[in-house]
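Obj: model holo form, ligand = magnesium ion.
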Amino acid sequence: MVEPLLKVEGVRAYYKLGRVFVRAVDGVSFEVNEGEVLGVVGESGCGKSTLSNVLMMNLRKPLVLVEGRVLFKMGNGFLEISSLGREEVKKRLWGKEMAVIPQSAMNALMPTIKVRKYVEHLAESHNIPKEEILEKIRIRFQEVGLDPVWLERYPFEFSGGMRQRAVIAIATLLNPQLLIADEPTSALDVVNQKIFLKVLMQMKKRGIVKSIVFITHDIATLRQMADRMVVMYAGKVVEVSPLEEMLRKPLHPYTKGLLDSVLTPEPEVKDRGITTIPGAPPNLIDPPTGCRFHPRCTYAMKVCREKEPALVEVEKGRKVACFLFTEEIA
Amino acid sequence: MRLVVRNLSKTFSMGFFSRRHVEAVRDVSFEVKGGEIVSLVGESGSGKTTTAKMILRLLPPTRGEILFEGKDVWRDLKEREELREFRRKMHAVFQDPFASYNPFYPVERTLWQAIELLGEDLSKQDKLNLIKESLLRVGLDPKDVLGKYPHQLSGGQKQRIMIARCWILKPLFIVADEPTSMIDASSRGGIIKLLEEMREENGTSIMFITHDLGLAYYVSDRIFVMKDGRIVEEGSPDEIVLSPKHEYTKTLVSSIPKLYKRMEDLV
Ligand SMILES: Nc1ncnc2c1ncn2[C@@H]1O[C@H](COP(=O)(O)OP(=O)(O)O)[C@@H](O)[C@H]1O
Ligand SMILES: Nc1ncnc2c1ncn2[C@@H]1O[C@H](COP(=O)(O)OP(=O)(O)O)[C@@H](O)[C@H]1O
Ligand code: SF4
Ligand SMILES: [Mg+2]
Ligand SMILES: [Mg+2]
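Output (holo structure tokens):
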């Protein structure tokens, strides 16, 4: 029986810029189950990083939660973290229950603060004896393939791959149930990407973290470890499917477009040739009417410009927001 | 032969007291024909960018020679006119688009400069039209870009503008160092097609530098695999990807995430 660890219900989170809003996350609902790796995929500018901030309740101006709820499993029930303030969630959940590897590792670690300082800071904010946590990080560093002497170094001295491993070692130090990784491999070369993925999967296998939300624009990377996929386009979730089924038969035209544009050296890909999705994701201050994908969709119909397709379950465990799959066409 | 690189080496010396030497490029030799697309592939630190910079005449080699159209780029180009000619014929698209822009000018300045470099007698309106067409070619809407400053655009948009610059200049040779690193997977194919078109239309040679063998597989006529400053294997895309010989090439190939086959050794 799959149990959700985190529930997102009808969330709208906008950047408030003077009189206009950037509707970066706009009516999004899904669940992260216990023990799963959930992939979140979409092109740049579709709201993925904003979503990761919403999951953490890391809301800072100009980003505001306009509507909806985020619930996190605590004990036998769910805590509505969206009703708590950022500081409260930070104090009660960050590090211990949920942790994030933000999109830029440079943002995660200040280049000129020694790695050990971060760990000591973590000890302070959680009232854990310094020595205890330093011992823990030394072990964790070794586990991710870093010599503990690097604790005394500055992040700018690390190579990209080492820095990401340092970040994951620190983020998971208190064994959070949920780890959110936002494009953790996008700036790494393929050799270091694979090393990072191995470290990540080890963390899960050993139960250091229970569930992982892995965010990326690269489906081929997600394919290596995701169980289920959430496809995001222009602030909306357009498809939720188990990974294998999505690969076999993508439902949403956007999902198909993403899959068809992957360039990996494989016979299947070579045979189909290189295709791209024409155009680019829209500006989210004034997104297209109806289905937000309609200006780029080769299947667009009249209804697509006028009405917004709802995310509905069309097969067991598979949801899609597209009029090709719903009755309303007529 | 459009480009001949022979025994190229670069050693960096660092530190004041105890001098430390980094042999970034070691005895590298290869040739690129007119209209040929080659890829230099390797993980970070393998010496790809250093090689590119020497070819582009941005960094002097420690040893070896680089002949572009028969002329040694470091020894034979002396006059200003010769250098200008070289800049027009050999063009770079860099890994780090931030380094290529002046923060105080709108991003299209680099495109105006390219047109000046062309040296053709065009009206201002013709020039603007050419700029707009170049932006459309790389999948950018001119109204999203014109008049914007570098900090207002994404890394991917800036990389596309560098490619638009290439399209305007129609150089004989393009050195593209991770040109799509900040461009979404969904539109990389379009950039590759554009580079291929330039090869078809103008006989442009392209040296594509990337850590992503997957990308190299689809664009190249030949692939060079680089490791610790040396070229360790060379071959056609199928030879390199489907039957790699060198141990390192095998590691590189097995690191590429594939869509239809899961890596088996992750857990
Ligand atoms: N601090 C901010 N202020 C205003 N708009 C923002 C801010 N951060 C992101 N955005 C906008 O929100 C949208 C979604 O961005 P983001 O969540 O970063 O997408 P992704 O991670 O998928 O690339 C984009 O249109 C982006 O320009
Ligand atoms: N200006 C420099 N001074 C000292 N070392 C350098 C310099 N530029 C590059 N290196 C070193 O040379 C090696 C090759 O670097 P580079 O050519 O950038 O590799 P790649 O582009 O394949 O990542 C690396 O070890 C790098 O640290
Ligand atoms: S709803 Fe219409 S426009 Fe949107 S994806 Fe489906 S077919 Fe395309
Ligand atoms: Mg992001
Ligand atoms: Mg480089």
